Amino acid sequence: MEKRLYFLFGDLLGNVLTGVIAAPVCVWLLGGLAMWLSMPVSMIVGMAIAMVACFAILIRLFGAMELMIQTMTTGMVAGMLAVMYIDPQGAVLVPAAIMGAETGVAVFALTWLLNVALSGQQTVEEG
């Protein structure tokens, strides 16, 4: 995992952006379906949104491998959580976007902590 501050910021930005986009889209598309059907479909939709966001914007700036793994996980988890917990009736875009941003930060933190646990002490490098 890249340890330079620029790439860490890119990973965080990519996760938050993916969550903010994936969660409202999944609620908007799949909010009225049964949970057993909407959860796997929202995983696929969230992963597709992450792929489009990464290939269109983020890969050129921040690299491919670490960013794709984290953003695809964020898209899947944000889509599933939003479809499960946000009622599709009424104004849902802002609560879904907030949940997506929180999911992005959580996936980023979990990925960083797992990397530290697996590969030892990590330090952030400047530059």
Strand fraction equals under 5%
> Could you give a short account of the major beta sheet?
none
Please, what is the average pLDDT? 86
Tally of helical runs: 4
The radius of gyration computed from the alpha-carbon positions, rounded to a whole number of angstroms, is 15 Å
N-to-C span: 15 Å
Q: How many β-strands, per DSSP?
A: 0
Principal-axes shape call: elongated
Helix content: over 70%
Structural class: mainly alpha
Q: Could you state the order of secondary-structure elements as H and E? A: HHHH
Low-confidence stretches: none
Annotate the secondary structure layout.
Blueprint: H1 5-30, H2 35-62, H3 65-85, H4 93-119
What does this structure look like?
This protein is mainly α. It is built from four helices and no strands. Helix 1 packs antiparallel against helix 2, helix 1 packs across helix 4 and helix 3 packs across helix 4 (93-119). The two termini are 15 Å apart. The mean pLDDT is 86.
Task: Please supply descriptive tags for the structure shown above.
80% helix; 127 residues; 4 helices; mainly alpha
Quick structural gist:
Helices cover 80% and strands 0% of the residues.
